[in-house]
Amino acid sequence: MVSDDGAVAGSRRNEGGRETDAVSLLDSPIDCVRAAPLTGTARVIEYGSVLGALLFGAYHHYVLISPDNIGHLPSGSPESHAAFIASAAVLTLLELASALSGAFCLGTHAAQSRAHD
User: Fold this and answer.
1) Domains in the chain: how many in total?
2) pTM of this prediction?
3) Same domain assignment for residues 65 and 102
4) Does residue 32 contact residue 39 with C-beta atoms inside 8 Å?
5) For residue 112, what are the domain limits?
6) Are 31 and 10 contained in the same domain?
7) Residue 109's CB: how many other CB atoms inside 10 A?
């Protein structure tokens, strides 16, 4: 339900008048990233860290034989194994989406830079 001032029921307004529900909590980091003036080098470093997280996580969850590998989990309940496997898959998919988005943004930025030169 939305009130007269546009607030969603169950959300609260913070000091700046913004809603503090789950969606607006995600807006703050996204706004910070959008507002940060990144140079070409900073964009590449940021993309490298996202790509590194994807490669590290995928390697440790799916390739390296260790307690973090989904095929070689230590003893435990089937429910905890299923939760770990699901969380590893979701994390890998989020990291993949971030890496693809970063690659797209780098490509778009490079194309815009070439167009202005």
Assistant:
1) 2
2) 0.62
3) yes
4) no
5) 38-116
6) yes
7) 14
